[in-house]
Amino acid sequence: MTDAPLNTSLNMPLTFGWEEWLGLPDLGLPAIKAKVDTGARTSSLHAVDIEPFGTQSRPRVRFVVNPIAGRHDVEVVCSADIIGQREVTSSNGETELRYFIETRLDVEGRLIPIEVSLTNREGMAYRMLLGRQALESMGALVDPVRSQILPPRSYEVYTGSEAPAVRRPLRIALLTQDASNYSSRAIIDAAQSRDHVIEAITTSRCYMNINVLRPEVHYDGKPLPQFDVVIPRIGVPMTSYGLAVVRQFETTGAYCLNRSNAIAASRDKLHALQVLARKGIPMPVTAFAKSPKDTDYVVDLVGGAPLVVKLTKGAQGRGVVLADTRLAASSVISAFRDLDAELLTQEFIKEADGEDLRCFVIGHKVVAAMMRRAKIGDFRANLHQGGDALSVDISPEEAQIAVKAARALGLQVAGVDILRSKTGPKVLEVNSSPGLQGIEKASGVKVADLIIGHIEGRMRPIQRLGAKSPRLLRRE
Predict the structure, then answer these.
(1) Interval 207-227: pLDDT, tens
(2) Which of 80, 292, 369, 419 could make a disulfide contact with 101, Cβ separation 3.0–4.6 Å?
(3) Element spanning 399, H or E
(4) Residue-level pLDDT at 315
(5) How far apart are CA 208 and CA 135, in angstroms?
(6) Taking Cα atoms as reference points, which of 33, 27, 61, 63 lies closest to residue 48?
(7) Is residue 277 helix, strand or coil?
(8) Per the CATH hierarchy, to which homologous superfamily does domain 15-159 belong?
(9) What is the pLDDT, as a whole number, of residue 452?
(10) What distance in Å separates the CA atoms of residue 280 and residue 277, rounded to the nearest whole number?
(11) Based on C-alpha coordinates, what's the Rg of the chain?
């Protein structure tokens, strides 16, 4: 294919009729009927839901095209670079400020770059207008008497079983309390670099309209738009309210990267360990009791001192204490219970020597791993407690256990912490909102980009069935 002016086999200029079937493959529009109008200087394309995004150095625009006049149930979601914003005066004398994009026109198998303005042509018979500027760039002629001189196309490409093979720009919501931290920024940058529209939403500022007909999530005094995807990154202090927000997004039809029930299961350490045990996943011996009278019994169940005492809803290494003796264990357990805190006791894996593995699972694969080493004098290999992150190679068994643990809790993205013991790898914890800074630095893997790639793989383009239906469906 070439971008040279088109000519026929007889070296004659290409001739258009006053209406023609054309294609815009870069936008996922293999067939669109256009009016060819030498009276119009610029070309225009029907577009709705027009919204700019991208960066100052590379401004982009996302928009929706209904390629078939009168068929609002058939949509194609498009994105393109913005080359300018100019005023255009229509044939009826109205002036409109429009975004201009450059895309390629498919004419008889050749791809020709043309400029197109985006405007709502809902009341027009043709979804595209091919203007004088584009015709001149092709060296084409127009026969105003004839129509459809070029080979015909069909709208069946939109209503058949297969949609056009083009990656769709997604509208993504990132639920977070801090859009400026490393993990949030990495995800935002990765999504924007892959031409998606992403918005950081502060979880605590969401509020909900809970009703049967039209469930909504509101923010800053107005309902949020329909998101294709929601990426929940909910901090532990925000767990209860954050889960309610995720559930509300689920009722709107959005695909949530980690669903609310999976996040809830992972946040309750006792519940998570019970699920993992039921699935046969190895872990340190763990005991749980409510009554102070049972303290000696739970200490014995995990093999006596030294042992680990852990809050069931702690995070980042907080609420985890190593008790070296039975007396110390009894004192720590008593102190936590006086605070009305739920806790569990756990076998201490001495041979781990202050080291653990963080395996980052996306889908059914460990995409990156690191070894975390505790600072001197501490046994908690957590980066938030001053630990170090090192590159590491994990065994096939460790990778398999990590994936199995994430799947057991229903998590699509998870950080699985594993201890290396004398009897093999043991799962310590499964994190539903794992940080990205340590793992990306230690492994050299762009994990954020892999997360967005995974989301793309879970989505497929469809024709919408109604005005409030989601534009994309999950791949099951």
Answers:
(1) 988 877 678 899 988 899 888
(2) 80
(3) helix 396-409
(4) 60
(5) 51
(6) 63
(7) helix
(8) Acid Proteases (2.40.70.10)
(9) 95
(10) 5
(11) 29
Exposed, middle or buried by CB within 10 Å (0-12, 13-18, 19+), for 465? Answer: exposed
| Strand partners for 227 | none
C-beta separation of 455 from 474 below 8 A:
no
Please name the helix (run of DSSP H) or strand (run of DSSP E) that holds residue 32, with its range, or none. strand 29-36
Sign of CA dihedral 111, 117, 122, 124: negative
Q: What strands lie across the sheet with 222-223, from one edge to the other?
A: 207-209, 216-219, 222-223
Q: DSSP string of 64-93?
A: EE--STT-TT--EEEEEEEEEEEEEE-TTS
Instruction: For domain 285-348, say whether CATH 3.30.1490.20 is its number.
Output: yes
Q: Which pLDDT value is given to residue 160?
A: 61
CATH fold group of domain 171-265: Rossmann fold (3.40.50)
Do residues 103 and 113 lie in contact, with contact meaning Cβ atoms separated by under 8 Å?
yes
State the span(s) of the chain assigned CATH 3.40.50.20.
171-265
Give residue 70's pLDDT.
82
Query: Can you say how many angstroms the Cα of residue 354 is from the centroid of all Cα atoms in its chain?
Result: 34
Judge residue 24's burial from the number of C-beta atoms within 10 Å of its C-beta, 0-12 exposed, 13-18 middle, 19 or more buried: buried
pLDDT for 167: 61
pLDDT digits (tens, 9 = 90+) for 356-407: 899 999 999 999 999 988 766 555 555 555 567 889 999 999 999 999 999 9
| Packed helices 396-409 and 260-267: angle between N→C axes, nearest 10 degrees | 110
- What single-letter DSSP state applies at residue 450? H
